What we know:
The structure is a homodimer. The first copy, chain A, is built from five helices and five strands; from the N terminus they run E-E-H-H-E-H-H-E-E-H. By secondary structure, the first copy, chain A, is α+β, with helices and mostly antiparallel strands. Chain A has a single domain (12-103), classed as Winged helix-like DNA-binding domain superfamily/Winged helix DNA-binding domain (Arc Repressor Mutant, subunit A, Orthogonal Bundle), CATH 1.10.10. In chain A, a hairpin with a 2-residue loop joins strand 1 (8-9) and strand 2 (12-13). Chain A is globular and about 60 Å long. The N and C termini of chain A lie far apart (54 Å). The interface between A and B is large, with 40 and 40 residues. The structure holds a DNA duplex.
Amino acid sequence: xxxxxxxxxxxxxxxxxxxxxxxxxxxxxxxxxxxxxxxxxxxxxxxxxxxxxxxxxxxxxxxxxxxxxxxxxxxxxxxxxxxxxxxxxxxxxxxxxxxxxxxx
Amino acid sequence: xxxxxxxxxxxxxxxxxxxxxxxxxxxxxxxxxxxxxxxxxxxxxxxxxxxxxxxxxxxxxxxxxxxxxxxxxxxxxxxxxxxxxxxxxxxxxxxxxxxxxxxx
DNA sequence: TGAACATATGATAATATATTCATATGAAAA
DNA sequence: TTTTCATATGAATATATTATCATATGTTCA
Lengths: 104, 104
């Protein structure tokens, strides 16, 4: 019997559309935007990030995990610290595009 | 007396960071992504959009308003219909960047 | 004018999300 | 091996967001 046609919107499957929305969710919170933007100048540990963005450690840690899950940042341990850095070239572009929009 | 120093993160003010997050919120929902993506090929009325993305009229109308408030789309009335179209060149770029990310 | 069609809106309920607090884990230094 | 510093995590609360339902508004045409 014929399978029910899968929903697509001009080639994009439902799954991809949901993934796309999930990706943009990562940029849709000011704490996460601050973290990403803060990492524009390179690797930083959690304490540094907390100071830069003026948020407490737990909140930052939760958001770092979300960003890491979304593969927007990566981490490596260095002694007691964990160093975080951007893991995707598109991050800067996406944020820059956003900035251009709001600056109009 | 000295004013308390306003929070900025490398030149971006708190206000701008919030605006940036608000902008990306518009892309952070699959209904809105579908609408934007649907409008890639040009102007459409509400009924068409509803059919294309398979969502009911009220939900679509609510989201159209959000997108319009964010200045991502614009509208004009044509008889009984209201035609919507993209109102920002960055929209396509932002979504394309997102697609590239998830396709990796 | 009043049907019929197209779109918008307000209120509500369901769901998702973020921050905080308390505490756990992990690494280094005393 | 205990203390200290750095980070992660779970639970709970508070807040935000979305879809739905009912209905209102606006437009055309008979």
